[in-house]
Fold each of these.
Amino acid sequence: MIRTAGFGGQSVKQKQQGKISPPQKGLYRIGLGAIRPVMRFWFGLHIKNRATETLEGPAVIVAGHEGLLDFMITALAFPRRRINFVGAEMFFRKPWLGRLLNQLGVIAKIQFYPDVNAVMNMMRVTKSGGTIAIFPAGQTSLCGLPANIDPGIVKLVKKMGVQVFAARIHGSFFTLSRYADGKWCRGGCEVETARVFTAEQLKQASEEEIYEAICRSIDYDEYAWQADRRVKFHGRHRAQGYENAIVFCPKCGGELCYRGEGNRIVCEACGNAATIDAYMTLHPQGSQSKCFPTLKEWFGWQMQKLQAQFAREDFQMQTPIRVELLNEKGELYPAGSGVMKLDRQSLSYEGTLEQQREFRYEVKNAAQAGLMAETGHYFELYHPDFGSMRFYPDDGRKVVKWKLAQEYFYQQNTKNNNKA
């Protein structure tokens, strides 16, 4: 059985149907009241409000997406508005959490797919005078810099035709990153708000001007911010998950060979080790060890090496993989195993799936804007019949390379199409 997907996400059964409601007033206010002292006194949140005084009427808020606290930070930055956030569909899979998110007015969005239902719900909110909050990057940071922002955000805000505000966030990446596995560091966070466009300015601006203004308004470099602020981040797990970000060892050249332990990372191939201090700076452990000063620089170096691999005409990766699917209760269950392959054209799975001994599913890179992934664990693809398919490679550290490769090919395809 062979299935090929273009924009398969459009036909996936949605977790939300019909009209979206504003956040329940009492629940939303109680939630803000509960998180405000935690964020201010425990995580050191400082809010620079330059925009909330002028936020009247329907609006779109665009926000930078560094870490897992960004929803709470953005809500606190605009305390006068009950915001309908746009969140990943995966959070709605557990019934109790889905009910809570619906009560809070969160709009379910399938990541990296054109989701018509989500767009319709956003339009309903702004037409009724509400406020939408979107994270245009669609994913948290991999290295303290923002992910690429798809130009589709321009058409979306143009279609809504309302004023646009921005929330620029700092510190969230160091506090609770995608790698942290719940192990937070206590230090400091900042958010600064600004109005990017009035409705009239948005109407008059070109697509290029809108895209550049949105990107500029939420841009961040966490290590540049930290070099200026010198915030101490206290924690015993600052290296948590770094093995799921690092592909190459700078000493022996080994690939996917690091492990993190406490505030230390070490190469399992050659013993090259480094520690991470309270300013999130890396230091070689011992006179023979080598490392980069920051994860950002390490990531930049490895991206150059990876892109040299990806640029080869004969580039291909493959890995043993196991598959899980979701049942009607939103619970994952083992559904098959096989081999996953990635080349310059597509990402494909070949193996078993439930009762099918010969199953193949292919997704073209040109149609997949990004790879929804939990680095260190799995990545997901959406199937028009089976919904979310979760793939676990034999070594979770492989996930970051697969994610970077697939997104590289999508971006190259987009650039080639723009040139044409």
Amino acid sequence: MITFFPTPYTDEILYSVFARYHDKSPNMNGSETAKDLFNVNRMVCSIEFPSMLFKLLQNMPLNSPYNVDRLIVKHTLFSFYTAFLSPENAERIRRYMLYKDVEIYNKITSIMNPLAENKFLRFCPKCNEEVLDKYGEIYWNRIHQIRGIYICPIHKNPIYNSTVSLEENKYRYIAATSDNCIVENEIKYETKVFEKLLNIAEDMYYILNNPKIKTNIKDQYLNQLKILGYATVNGGLRQKRLITDFERFWGNEVLEMTHNTITKTNNSNWLLEMGWDRPLTADPVKHILLIRFLGLTPAEVFNQKIEYLPFGNPPYPCLNPVCIKYENEIIESVEIKNSYKTKSPIGYFTCPVCGFSYLRRGPDKDSEDRYRYSRIVDYGDYWREELMRLLKKNSVPKVAKIMGTTHTTIYDYLRRMGIKR
């Protein structure tokens, strides 16, 4: 049992807490610190998914205020990297962090882009200035260690590599200091690139602290793709347009920096593998790139249901001029089909009062569109009964005007029914 354990600072990554423990202990190397904390002689110092935390808790001082979930949620990157995993797979990774189940490690590597792996521990100079003034020492902030982040979402300035190499020090815990966090050359990004990198960083920060998804992500993406015209009513993707516009939106520089360039083959195109007809991609950075491209934020995708409503919100109006509910919004639902030729939506509407059924080719462009139809599908029994009643006392042209149709339509109907006029 250890006799003390440093109090973790706000958003301090757990590796940094271990490093501060090492500095304050009499230990000479990482092996001695690993023995203190985890009862092992040697272990790789993981930044993203520290393991054997159950052993750590057993070795904590008496009356320690920490529990495993507090440490995992507040001081690791678990919440960020597991946001798009199923609860079952997220729990498996949590158990890996508790007990170091080797069989789970492949699942962990699948949610982090190996090409984007950080070579050094990273820092924000303004964050360091603030925490040094507040606490008298600096530490490694977990948000700065996410793969693919280049801008500090707190201070909106570039993040820098420290001199601490992760590869060369994988068995050592090295605390952040003013000596290893030096800005030698100021980083400046072109304005448009900076704005995009800042959006990515802010979304990373949101997901890290708000990982709970209350919606169906697949449905959210597909509905927004339909709204923007990148998918048909039936869910078919307009792949060429989607890829072209996506690459134009982000630009090659940002896609290369985040290691998410698009390969022009269906077998390895990650953008077309985002879960519409296959298991959901787990890499959060890919989701962020898609979400921003679709004109959304993680907060919207996680919490607000996106609906594809090419004909507006229900209820819809009856468009039968002789119905007592004419132009009243009483149709509760619309059946949407895909036009075979144009791939645009076609809505089928039926009045529950008179049975009048019509279709409209969409999508609606303004509020007036909902009061028009492209073709009548079925006049309904009420319309037919009213037609016969009116014809007893009125001419065909007059009846046509009353019923909102043409005299040709009425004559055609009478001919089909075998009625002479």
Amino acid sequence: MNSTKTRLVGATVLAASTGWSPQKKTVVIDGSRIVALEDPGSSNKDGARTVDVGGLYVIPGLIDLHCHLTFRRTIGPIWQMMAESETINAVRAARNAMTVLRQGITTIRELGAPNNINTEIAKSIEKGLLPGPRILSAGSPLSVTGGHAKNIVTYADGAEEFRKASRAVVATGAKWIKIIGSNDPTHEPHEDGQWSFGEVDSDEVEAAVAVAHKWGARVAVHCMGSRQIELVANAGVDTIEHGVYLSEAGARAMVDKGVTLVPTISGYLETIWPRWQRGDDWAARHKHLADVHMEAVPIARAAGVRIGVGTDSVGEIVHELKLIHRCGLDLQACMNAVTKTNAEILGLEDKIGDVDNGLQADLVVLRDNPLENLDALRSVEYVVQAGRVMRPLDIRMGSGDEAGDSEPWLAGKNEELKLSA
């Protein structure tokens, strides 16, 4: 048997490479990469391991562009969780990373954690110490002094401090820089009667963008409010997160500068639900945002803004796709957004986001067809990560005994031990 090759036999492939039309194929994987999509009945000349996926659907691994592993889908006041010890936050992040992978999400962008825990978790997964998705981390977000998200940010004021702080983020190994661009929801209406006001100035954003792009990183900005969205877009950032109160002028600025919108609608709708126990004040203030959040996507689409898919702290990937579908994207466009488009936004389209020759074998095998019903994305039969085919519950922490058992080693050392005694 060829130990490096695996064949997923009987698959119905759904991906950008097939035009999202179902195609019966055998997916051939060599090591971590897809090397062929063969017609049904092709022979196993190499003696590869065979996995029968007859009647199942193979899609690209899902990509979530807005995660917070240290407080992902956790119950209770969010600021209390952020203020907990670094150890507790790290353990929670490790647990959530494993859960995310089990759901078929093979790549995430982690957009803010205390003490750079997200970047260290990313390194731990890359080294094989933890199970989890590929993580592109933004480390600790940058905010003006006294700004939004105080428990997880690094404060900076003025262009020079933003420039220095951006270099520090990139130096930790982060692939993205996250900026807190606005404060929201506020306790009362501010600019143009909106429950938000802009915090960061254009020269501060421009300084961070210059550093990031010089060093091969990208910039995401938490931003709401019509005026602030336009300001941030004109500064040349890569993505705007949330985008509540997006105006037509802001959307045009996003198109002109090539800025992507990642709306995270499910995160802001769900956070006001009683099940999350965020508190009455939190729910009342966030309701002002939730009531108008979905208006941003049609405005963005009408202008030609690219739409990415992310969930934020309590959002959920299937719920997010359903909401985007309600905003006008058909099911095929939704599936393309959470795979191919998201990969392009990350700059990884030559590695992930599709089922095609030469790409990383990051795949999900489903029992049901997501182009008929998005709930099918919950019917995960296998997760394939870098060519490794796993049942969801087989994704778990390793033993940690890297050297193996001691006794076999000692058996061969008995004579040496006697001589040295």
Amino acid sequence: MATDYRQMWTDLGLDLEAHDALLQALGQGYQDIFLAQKGRPAGMGYFDFVMSEVHGLRVKELLDAKAEGRPVVGSFCVFVPEELVLAVGGVAVGLCAGAEFAFDKVEQHIPRNTCALIKAFLGFGLARVCPYLTAADLLVGENTCDGKKKAWEIADGLIAPIHVMDLPQVKSAEGRGLLTAEYRRFMAKMEELSGKQITLESLEDAIGVVNRKRAALARLARLRSANPAPISGLDALLVNQVSFYDDPVRFTASVNALCDEVEARVAAGKGVFPADTPRILVSGCPMAVPNWKVPWVIETSGGVIVGEESCVGERGLRDQVATDVADLDGLLGAIVDRYFAIDCAIFTPNPDRLGHVRELRDRTGADGVLHYGLQFCTPYQMEAGPVEKAVKGDGTPFLRLETDYSMEDVEQLRTRVGAFVELLGG
């Protein structure tokens, strides 16, 4: 970072010593994993810059927005509709953490055998190293898994008050009714927080911004079907991760510029890996910044990732909000329809996800599917079996990995992934 933000971090209540340690580790990891790649598209320079300023310039932008009276809303899940935040002039940012930090403090409040994503969020908060937590005017948690449901209660007393959004567990008329009621309640909360009323025009504008962002991400995802792969899975994952933090309009323009470059690569037959490198679809749990371990292992073991069936990937960008309605209630209903179609593993039964995995495998030309599960993430661990059955039933090789955020198992993972890649290339 070219600018000294220490006073800003101090004003936000961060522990500067712990925060410095986090940034040092993050910077070194980023250099070793991302900047060490060969033949990256030049357009990735923008995303490198965003990451270099993720705790600097972007946080300053959030504070500037707050000074203008625009609420900053932090959330943990793709079920929280960004459209309703933007419709009151607000700023939406993601809060999920992908690193093991202050787990010793966390385990004084929750069981040790809790998934790393939950522990990381609480660790970042308890250690006072996340400026997004303290910069936000509102934190929004959602009742997906049981671990999160209870984590919101604990975090409410330890870190900050949280607006909890209940979610359905069954795709039914009653389930859609619950989601509609929760989105209406969230809409009222945003109006209360901002002092502004959501209008037909403001919601149409917000939907347009988010639809264009998803369209840009979907465009990049389609380009990854080319052989040779024109962009690494690591870089594509990074773009999806940045989508949760960056200004949506600026982000969309940057993704489309990257896509223009990647399209030219495809036309020229240029790839970041040789043609016919074993192609892998990663399915399962989301990967929040800086959780890059498994993709790094895959792409330094002879494989290339060509798609992510994940919330930080296809599940987050799939489907647009319909705009062919004439009133506010109709637009809210369209938002509900779009988010209710998300095939999260919390739903039972969840056949749509199995179909989406097969569709994405076919579209990307994946030679194999790797199911990534965080230890103690029960919904995705339980669904790994049905996904394996669906994929292997079509004759596609499948590998199931369960891990956490530590680097202790890297060599074990590398051995298993290397054998899988060898199988795909054979």
